Amino acid sequence: MHHSTLWPELLAYGSGISLSPIHIGLLLLLLLGPNPLRRGGLFVLSWMATITLMVVLLLTVGHRLLLSMAKGSSHRTGLDLLAAGALLALGIKELLNRGEEGNPPGWTRQLDRFCAMPLPLLLGISSGLEVISPDDLFLFAKTASALLASGLNRLQEALYTAGFTVAASLALLVPFLAVLIGREQVLPWLERSKQLLFNKGDLLVGGLSLVLAGYLGWQGIEGLQLG
């Protein structure tokens, strides 16, 4: 893979991971609650550490197994098609399960309970949800496969992994940095963002999942033709 196409690909996968309505909702509640900078900061750091560890783990496995991730290889084509199928199913599920207008989806009712937990437990649950989410797992795997296919040295892999971690964390970093600069000024914006997320989160995730499913499906079909 040419390195000039790697950043756009990593940004696409990172965007899919970043737009997790559960994690964004949890962060917004933490930022609106007590000790927002400490609790919100640890939440964001935990999210970023989990992303980095997942990519490093998958890269290590890929190197040790000497997986071929060139376009058209069976590993990459199979991963593309599996990821497309998983994201397509997720997108359709999210859109079909949307609640009535003005009625927040069911997952929003669990967030207050999560936020009331001790912070270490909350961080552990957050990381667990990030790791077991099927769509996130496929996007992590696609990220690692893109890095493996690029033939990078270890320093380049570290730099691209750091960049991907930031890209996959933008939806959390933006509200946290806004609170860091001036919480009182952004409180109304945080409240409006929370309400918008609760009302439109399923539509956002469903739409993005379908777009990524289309992209990965197209890559998988190209791989089949090359293979």
List keywords for this structure.
mainly alpha; 82% helix; 0% strand
Characterize this entry briefly:
With 227 residues, the chain is mainly alpha-helical.
Kindly describe this structure.
With 227 residues, the chain is mostly helical. Helices cover 82% and strands 0% of the residues. Helix 4 crosses helix 9. It is globular. The model has no long low-confidence stretch (mean pLDDT 83).
Number of helices: 9
Percentage beta strand:
under 5%
Which consecutive residue ranges, at least 5 long each, have pLDDT under 50? none
The strand count comes to: 0
Task: Give the averaged pLDDT, no decimals.
Answer: 83
Estimate the helix proportion, in percent: over 70%
Assign an overall shape.
globular
Radius of gyration: 18 Å
Give helix and strand order, one letter per element, not per position.
HHHHHHHHH
Distance between the termini: 16 Å
Described by strand count, sense and barrel closure, the largest sheet is: none
Structural class based on helices, strands and sheet pairing: mainly alpha
